[in-house]
């Protein structure tokens, strides 16, 4: 029997949308091209993931897991000065204020198994090669498995294919972010510095000496720390040597990072990725909808990717359930959540741009102590409310007018597009998956 919904991709977005659909009695088939566990970057969760994980009934599994508990984020500026930690609990004394640093191969596998347990028909090692259309309506997918093709029909197709963006490419929907044109190189260290107690699992954001980039410092279980440098594409990849050399040079120029990894042993090779900030001009069409990175990816700063994957998965699942019940699976029904979601992504994007333009959290909270809570709300991912918008004017008052970083953001998508740039992840063995 044909499923009601086909989901392309079994990452956090695909697992979320399919579990929530299955929980509500929808028949779902999910196709994932890889066999899990598979490597993925994106290890730091933020507190607002709690609400979706709770709805998924994933919290008991997370609480029993070995993932490092994360209570805060802390910033180190280019001169090595530490901000006070932003403790999520101080802002919101609720168990949602503790989140996790996850090894993604393990987290994604847990999420996909969880989908299976809820009745989703999950197929690994099966690539979706095409979405099938009749007139302008998606009616199913074409699969490739062991070299053979077959078609599966469904009322709704959900594209959760991550940065691959199957439907974005089919329809040329991808708009590259004109400002966030960054790249990243990272590796994993064993035995690197860890704080103690409730600071052990803090994410550190360490600014590079030229203030154009930053390091993430994410403590994981088994005494591993994920340490990556993010910087403008040109400064990281143009005229530089191999990734390993660039990474070491950047660490050498950032004493706060260098001290933390001194004495540690590298546990893997070097990974690199570039050209990853984009958004789709459409969230849905007739019979299809995009979730997670298949819709948009912003930037690694503030670790919003998995939250946005989970939230878009949740919002899309609700729109699909409603649409199936009323017999309306048009673009407007499947995409009802798009404007609200875009506004939330815009808020996170604005916070990201402020940082790249020199915004200092330390300076901000010294000057506007009464807004400390509101800025923490943004950092925990509380993005879908206008309440947090009170921070922007004070934030931008800290810049001289000629340096005002970004024009007022109006919940729209930047119109410039260098279409068809291909994003690439390079694994330590040189492969591009
Ligand atoms: C450098 C960097 C650092 C990051 N750090 C963080 C962080 O600290 N915290 C955070 O929250 N986020 C982070 N992110 C973002 C995060 O990794 C993503 O936002 C998140 O993985 C999105 O989930 P997803 O389910 O949409 O996509 P994915 O996790 O990419 O899942 C998509 C799945 O679809 C499958 N697929 C693709 N094409 C097909 C096909 N044709 N057929 C079948 N299956 C297919 C893929 O194999 C994959 O398993 C980071 C991203 C980058 C680039």
Description:
The protein is 32% helix and 24% strand. With 433 residues, it is α+β, with helices and mostly antiparallel strands. It has a domain at 5-67 and 102-176 and 277-342: FAD/NAD(P)-binding domain, CATH 3.50.50. The model is unreliable at 402-424 (pLDDT under 50). The chain binds flavin-adenine dinucleotide. Flavin-adenine dinucleotide (FAD) is lined by residues 8-14, 31-34, 40-45, 127-128, 160-164, 166, 184, 273, 276, 292-294, 297, 300, 303, 305-307, 309.
> CATH homologous superfamily of the domain at 5-67 and 102-176 and 277-342 - what is it?
FAD/NAD(P)-binding domain
User: What portion of residues is helical?
Assistant: 25-40%
**What do we call the CATH topology of the domain at 5-67 and 102-176 and 277-342?**
FAD/NAD(P)-binding domain
In the predicted model, the low-confidence regions spanning at least 5 consecutive residues are 402-424
The end-to-end distance, rounded to whole angstroms, is: 33 Å
Specify the number of helices: 15
In this entry the ligands are:
flavin-adenine dinucleotide
Task: Estimate the strand proportion.
Answer: 15-25%
Structural class: alpha+beta
Largest sheet: 9 strands, mixed
In the CATH classification, which architecture of the domain at 5-67 and 102-176 and 277-342 applies?
Answer: 3-Layer(bba) Sandwich
Shape: globular
Number of strands: 23
Mean pLDDT: 91
The CATH top-level class label of the domain at 5-67 and 102-176 and 277-342: Alpha Beta
Radius of gyration: 21 Å
């Amino acid at each position: 029997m044909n499923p009601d919904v086909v989901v392309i991709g079994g990452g956090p977005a695909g697992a979320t949308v399919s579990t929530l659909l299955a929980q509500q009695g929808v028949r779902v088939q999910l196709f994932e091209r890889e066999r899990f566990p598979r490597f993925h970057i994106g290890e730091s969760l933020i507190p607002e993931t709690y609400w979706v994980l709770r709805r998924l009934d994933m919290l008991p599994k997370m609480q029993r897991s070995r993932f490092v508990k994360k209570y805060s984020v802390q910033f180190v500026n280019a001169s090595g000065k530490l901000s006070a930690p932003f403790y999520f609990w101080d802002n919101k004394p609720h168990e949602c204020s503790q989140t996790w640093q996850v090894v993604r191969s393990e987290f994604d596998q847990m999420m996909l198994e969880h989908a299976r347990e809820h009745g989703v028909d999950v197929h690994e090692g099966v690539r979706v090669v095409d979405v099938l259309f009749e007139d302008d309506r998606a009616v199913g997918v074409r699969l490739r498995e062991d070299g053979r093709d077959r078609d599966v029909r469904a009322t709704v197709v959900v594209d959760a294919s991550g940065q691959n963006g199957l439907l974005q490419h089919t329809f040329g929907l991808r708009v590259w972010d004109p400002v966030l044109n960054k790249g990243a190189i990272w590796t994993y260290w064993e035995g690197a510095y860890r704080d103690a107690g409730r600071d052990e699992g803090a994410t550190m954001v360490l600014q590079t000496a030229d203030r154009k980039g930053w390091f993430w410092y994410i403590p994981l279980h088994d005494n591993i720390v994920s340490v990556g440098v993010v910087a403008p594409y040109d400064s990281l990849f143009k005229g530089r040597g191999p990734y390993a050399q660039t990474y070491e040079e950047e660490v050498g120029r950032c004493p706060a990072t260098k001290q933390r990894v001194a004495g540690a042993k590298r546990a893997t090779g070097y990974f690199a990725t570039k050209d990853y900030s984009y958004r789709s001009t459409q969230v849905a069409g007739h019979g299809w909808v995009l979730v997670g990175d298949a819709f948009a990816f912003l930037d690694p700063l503030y670790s919003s990717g998995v939250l946005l994957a989970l939230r878009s998965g949740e919002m899309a699942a609700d729109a699909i359930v409603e649409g199936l019940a009323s017999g309306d699976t048009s673009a407007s029904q499947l995409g009802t959540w798009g404007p609200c979601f875009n506004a939330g992504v815009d808020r996170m994007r604005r916070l990201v741009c402020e940082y790249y333009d020199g915004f200092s959290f330390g300076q901000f909270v010294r000057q506007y102590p009464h807004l400390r809570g509101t800025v923490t709300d943004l950092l925990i991912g509380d993005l879908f409310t206008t309440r947090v918008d009170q921070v922007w004017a004070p934030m931008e008052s800290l810049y001289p007018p000629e340096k005002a970083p970004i024009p007022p953001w109006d919940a729209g998508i930047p119109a410039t597009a260098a279409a068809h740039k291909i994003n690439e992840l390079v694994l330590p063995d040189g492969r591009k998956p």
